[in-house]
Amino acid sequence: MKKRLWLTLSGLMGVALNSHAIEQYSLVNESHVWPKIQAHLLNSNLVRRAADEFEQRSDLTVNYQAVKTIGANGRYQHYQVYLGNIPVLGNRFVLLVDKAGSVEQGLGNALLVEEGFSIPHPTPFKLSDKKITEKLVQRLRTDGIAFVSEPKVSKAFSLEGDDLRAVFVANVITPSHRVNLIVDAQSFKVLRQENDIDGFSSQQNFVAGGGIGGNEKLGAICYSPAPASMQNCLSYKFDPADAAASELLFSDPQAHLFSDFSGYPFVVSKQQGVCTLENPYVKTIDYLADKTRAASYQCAGNNEHFEQTSVDDQYYDYFSYSGVNDAHFNAGLVMQYYHKLLTEMYPSQQTQCDTQGFCLKQLVQNVGNNTHGNSQANWDDTYVNYGTGNYGGTHYYHTTLDIVSHEASHAVTYWNSQLNATGQDGALNEAFSDIASIAVFDYLSQNVSGSYAQSRAFNRKSLDSDTNHRGNRKWWFGWDVLYEDTGARYFAMPSWDGKSIDHFKSYNPSQSIYETAGVFRKAFYELVKTQNWSIQDAFKLFLRANINCFFKGMSVQDAGMCLIDQASYFTHKGTNNEVKQQIDATLHSVGIVAQNSQLSTLDFEGSIQYDVVSYTLSSVPANQIKAITVEWGDGTIERWQKNSATAIHAFLQRDRLVNIDDLIRFKLSVLKTDNTELIGYRHYYSRAVQAACPPVQAQGQSSLSSITVNDQQIPLNTQPYQSVLTDTHVLNKHVQQVVKFDSSLNGKLVTVLLDNNRDGLFSESEMMVSNQTITNAQVTFKLKDTISAGIGLMRISLGGQYAFYDACGYAKASQIVDLKADVEIPELPLEAGFIYQIAADNRVTFTNTSQVNDIRQPRYTWRFGFDNQGSTKKHPDDVQYPLVDGNYTVNLRVDYQDDSGQFDEFSQQITLSAPAQCEIGINNPGNAQTIYIDEMHLWTSIYSRHLITGSSGTNSNGYVKHQTNLEFEDSLELNVDIRSNVLDEGTIDNLLSRDNRDVRFTVWLDGDRDESFQVGEANYYDANSNYTKDCRNGECRIKASQSIRLPWISWWKSRKYVLRARLEEHPTAEHGGDGCRNFDYGEVEDIEFTVNGS
């Protein structure tokens, strides 16, 4: 798919550029574009030259820089688009090539240009770096944007809408976080803000060190290279009542990184009795003590890092024993894990970083860096930074294994694929780091020993049950850093955090990257649980994709394709096609549809209401369905087949009661009559119908012994709050609800709430009645339009004020009861109906007002009362009736596609009159020679201007129509240039007076093709600069130019359009309002041409 760029480059205003000269293409499935990309790559003039050569050039040309080539036979070729030596943001792409070098698929976006295209250097880019920084700092201060250090600035081009704009990318550290500001190069105005990546040597003597770590939740942990080697740690207790520290031993003989120490990862350098927390792959800085050098300590023969005063102080302040020890051990473990996996994947690589393989560098980490808050951790493209936690209030030191794994993985991603920190690839970035935390803990679990392996904390963190899904802490991210027994993010059901999405159908661009990342966490989990992959294999899949074909700016669908394309590396799981199917099915289960998917996706609406799963199927016409299979996720499978005795509409909308506290993997399959199979998935977690928490009450009342809901009496216990959930109370959405109670409540307040989203909580938006004064011992109300059918909770508060100080609700001097309600929306009778509106040209707009049950897929049949014209659309397109007087009977028939035979019809008669014709001409033929159009050109490209033959001269009517063979592409800017007949130079000067211009050139495009030219169809601007005096060889004429946008039409269509051009002296009507009015002096010319869709 291509996108034309209307080049209004900041700093380049006034440069005329052909709209065809440069275009942006999305490469996915655009096979006709791939040869053009390869041709550009082969053209030596377009392959990126050295940066200093570009600096010397006065103009900039489009070129592609090879970022890396990786995979068997160079399958994944990564490129960045540049203008000169300046990158174009959002234009990075990957070509997937076969063994012969032919492109099989493309990912990302690329710019293509016409031969010879170039642009000059934007003026702001010629400023010195110092001047650019000064102007940026001044603008940031003017705009009130706080920053704590001088911004780092680089040059770039950015696509802003349809404009290619020169920008500066400013990496700015604010008091709260680190961001990239995209700044207009001309005005230094901030166009948008993007988060930076965030989230939670000489030969030396290396030895195995160790020491105390852990926190209040995990207990004291002794990182030990050998049993009983860390004696100070093992004997330490902050409080005599504390449990003894646990000993953590780790070995992995197959790991090569720290093979001298059997894979034990707490490796330090030792010189003259001083141990420094640094090795070739990890450097740990105690940021509170020294912001540049690695932390060090006096080490005896066992190399233990233990300073009791420091340990006591840190635990007293932060309820964590030693952040630097935690960070050094955990980072060593993570880096060894990556080194082990990557060297297995790329066995021939000899260096740390290779464009034909992976890149792994030393991880430098600042422990105790609270620059962006004490409860944060982040990777800033250079360092990993860990906050101290908020004194154990909610977070411990951010150096636990989950956090270190996550942030170190951001570094690995940055060194390899360079995924963004915003957008869909930002979500993938976050998800990869979350997934890595699960994989690293699994790696630890396979190789850990010592008393820590039997500790309560380790066993709780390791819990992975097939029944207790909510308690599976192994699939929680961030449990080890949080005070509460909860996770920061989840894998089994990402939505448990209240924000993340379980399925990509729930994606919204306004979501945070952490929320969108839920679909990848869920995919990883399902690959393990439903496809029986090991955690290690599943992580290797994501890691291979990150190295091979993840790239900056990629979409979720791109990521899906990249993951499927790694199948050939996992043939121990099955054949190549079988592994592809496993990955594909897993991605489909979370709504990720890759471009190379072999599955057809079924679109349907699904939901769970506590313990009731339901779905609605409306995306496939009922008469095209051969069979439906419903797998409810609790072992129950239901089927419907065409020609069975069951009506299909029972399977177009259906629900089922499932077990509570269960992970429901719902699957819906549709076999169409052409034997195409469509499959859709949703995953839910079922829960009991009850409030998540009781309301907070002050001076609770308990006088009521019963209430009545819709004539159904409900006995109550004499207590301030109770849940009556044994019976279900029906609420018919079409009628008023009536709640009655004792007359003693008259004059007091009543509040009624309905838990519409079925989350067990009552929000302010779910109030049906809000603190209403009771009269006549009852309250009546209608359910809101947003209320959906199904089981729900209704809360009734009687007595005092009900408020929302927290999610549980608060009431004073009230008695509160929660009831189990069943909202019913009975089907209303089928009624056909419509209204209509008549336009001036006998075009009629029909609006369908029929009352139908959309689930049963209504079918509409229109008859418009002339020439056998009709439509089957719900709301038909505007109907063009004959341009004569007449009466027409319009009929609408509505029936259902479920073979029920139900139908209804509605007819109306409409009366139309012949519209007034848009006739135009000069009032006095004797004035026709005074001023007229003597030459006219039409063009969309300055290189191809079309002279309108016959535009010279005029006639006594002052009007002429030209039927041409001209053709233009849709959506382009059509320019109309004219020259008048020869006029006296003084006359021209008077007519073009800037203070009182007395001539006007206007163009209209009959976009609706009604042979009428309305105000809205005229050119938008009419500036004095559009008119000039053109004198040649002693003859002077008026030269004028206007432009108008051509309409968009479908690519396979072509349509005839008429453009009206009017040159008039002394115009009297408003601009654009004289398209069908006669005139005294001037000329009108109509030009007919063809517009082709593109």
UniProtKB/TrEMBL annotation:
A family per Pfam: Peptidase_M4_C
SUPFAM superfamilies, per database record: Metalloproteases ('zincins'), catalytic domain (SSF55486)
Keyword Iron-sulfur: no
GO terms assigned for molecular function: metal ion binding; metalloendopeptidase activity
Signal peptide: 1-21
Statement: the UniProt record of this protein carries the keyword Metal-binding: yes
Domain Peptidase M4: 266-413
Biological processes per GO annotation: proteolysis
InterPro entries: Ig-like_fold (IPR013783), Peptidase_M4 (IPR023612), Peptidase_M4/M1_CTD_sf (IPR027268), Peptidase_M4_C_domain (IPR001570), Peptidase_M4_domain (IPR013856), Zinc_Metalloprotease_M4 (IPR050728)
Keyword tags: Hydrolase, Metal-binding, Metalloprotease, Protease, Signal, Zinc, Zymogen
Boundaries of every Peptidase M4 C-terminal domain copy: 417-592
Family: Belongs to the peptidase M4 family.
Stated name of the protein: Peptidase
Species of provenance: Pseudoalteromonas citrea
